[in-house]
Amino acid sequence: MTAIQTELWLTWLPVAGIWLVTVITPGPNFVATSHAALSRGRVAGAWVALGVTVGTAIWATASLLGLGLLFQTAGWLYQIVKLIGAAYLIYFGVRTILSARHRRPPRTPPGQFSATGAWRAFRRGLLTDLANPKAAAFFTSLFAVTIPPAAPSWFIAMVIATVVAIAGAWYGTVALAMAWDPVADAYRRIERVVCYLAGAVFVGFGLRLAADR
Length: 213
Description:
Elements: H1 3-24, H2 28-40, H3 42-64, H4 67-73, H5 75-99, H6 115-130, H7 134-146, H8 153-178, H9 181-189, H10 191-211
């Protein structure tokens, strides 16, 4: 292994470590995945997790292409994207709170999960992840201090694949864990309370994003 290759691998390790810590910190993506798995089953949770993972890929790739720097230069554009994202989180939170007042349909068996249900779950995960434009700033900062300017294209592709794989593995695990029968049974006993709390968390994240400067 050459000195350059050794330097690149030593660069890759901090990226993977920092991103892993960031991903496992609970946030909107965690709440969306957990709530879907608890209320609709592991397939719904898995589709939400997939949507979150695709959103991560979009933010990471866009950051390497300069989106984060564009947000820094054109502050008005960042503010618009941020407010749109905040509005979505608040909207989804309010919807979740209102849905707690109605009896939910039973969890969908894996073999009966429709394409429409899968698309809705995927879209929820994707939009929840894309609702936070601070991800672009985070990836831009992370890549700026870790990836060498002359890094080869294969290394950049590996970095993107790494952050996407970590996100997919974590949220996929969350979906499976939350859909585990003992957890699901406990959830059904306090379903309404959990819906109220999940909705309040989404509204809180939205308000915090809107107020962030």
